[in-house]
Amino acid sequence: MMILCLGIYVNKNLRLDNIQVYGFDYDYTLAHYSSHLQSLIYDLAKKHMVNEFRYPDVCTQFEYDPTFPIRGLYYDKLKGCLMKLDFFGSIEPDGCYFGRRKLSRKEIESMYGTRHIGRDQARGLVGLMDFFCFSEACLIADMVQYFVDAKLEFDASNIYNDVNRAIQHVHRSGLVHRGILADPNRYLLKNGQLLRFLRMLKDKGKKLFLLTNSPYNFVDGGMRFLMEESFGFGDSWRELFDVVIAKANKPEFYTSEHPFRCYDSERDNLAFTKVDAFDPKKVYYHGCLKSFLEITKWHGPEVIYFGDHLFSDLRGPSKAGWRTAAIIHELEREIQIQNDDSYRFEQAKFHIIQELLGRFHATVSNNQRSEACQSLLDELNNARQRARDTMKQMFNRSFGATFVTDTGQESAFSYHIHQYADVYTSKPENFLLYRPEAWLHVPYDIKIMPHHVKVASTLFKT
Question: Which of UniProt's keywords are assigned here (predicted)?
Answer without folding.
Answer: Coiled coil, Hydrolase, Magnesium, Metal-binding
